[in-house]
Amino acid sequence: MSKVHRIYVEKRKEFAVEALELFNNLKNQLKIENLESVKVINRYDVQGVSIETLNKGISIILSEPMVDDVIMEDYPNPDNSVVFGIEYLPGQYDQRADACEQCFQLLTGEKNVIVKCAKIIVLEGCVSPLEVDKIKKYLINPVDQRLASLDKVDTLENDEVTIDQVPVINGFISFTKDELISYLKNNSMAMNYDDLKVTQDYFRDEEHRDPTETELKVLDTYWSD
């Protein structure tokens, strides 16, 4: 079994457009007032290549040397920070991981290269646990994404995963007007109150049950389009 190599790729500050945009959105849209900075890092776990091939691939596949910083194995997180990762659910197509696998396979001529990707978010500042949960809900679409483990793995082969049951929004069909408005605000939804009220009426009168978080996310996504 070959070693799993972990690589972190981060845009240098002057090129970190995605991180700056996310910082502004969290400050202005979610009102995370004590947030001081945000970092967005692409994490790659690569198995099936030699260290020589990996070093060659880092500069031509995983990063752009002129604008990226590359850190191997362990990312030095600041003390005053919150760190979490986002990855695609099992079975969802990850275009970035697939492209990297194909490039490494072309580089090596081998077909047994495996690449797994995750996006690591680093929040610096006095951010409360409630605000962190709010940010996670803002960033993670439960339809096709989940929190990624920060722990290193020994193998990417036969990766067995446990998919948690999608949470039900208990009591949703009985929410008052104020509770519906609060739910809209806390989850940064594209719907307005009238839209959510129609949804509530449907689940109460037709489905006779509370919806899941995924169902509301899907409806909200279509509403925004």
What overall form do the CA principal axes indicate? globular
Estimated radius of gyration: 20 Å
Spatial sequence of strands, sheet with the most strands? 3-1-2-5-4-6
The percentage helix is: 25-40%
Helix count, per DSSP? 7
The first-to-last residue Cα distance is 46 Å
Pick out the low-confidence regions: none
Secondary-structure-based class equals: alpha+beta
Order of helices and strands: EHEHEEHEHEHHH
- Give the strand content: 15-25%
Number of strands: 6
Biggest sheet layout: 6 strands, antiparallel
| Integer average pLDDT | 89
Folded structure, characterized:
The protein has 7 helices and 6 strands; from the N terminus they run βαβαββαβαβααα. With 225 residues, the protein is an alpha+beta fold. The chain has helices at 17-28, 51-62, 95-108, 129-139, 177-186, 193-207, 213-224, and strands spanning 4-11, 35-47, 68-72, 81-88, 114-125, 145-148. Helices cover 38% and strands 22% of the residues. The protein has a 6-stranded antiparallel sheet, with helices on one face. Helix 2 (51-62) crosses helix 3.
Give the gist of this structure.
With 225 residues, the protein is an alpha+beta fold.
Question: Main attributes?
Answer:
single chain; 225 residues; alpha+beta; 6-stranded antiparallel sheet; 7 helices; globular
List the helices and strands and how they pair.
Elements: E1 4-11, H1 17-28, E2 35-47, H2 51-62, E3 68-72, E4 81-88, H3 95-108, E5 114-125, H4 129-139, E6 145-148, H5 177-186, H6 193-207, H7 213-224
Antiparallel strand pairs: 1-2, 1-3, 2-5, 4-5, 4-6
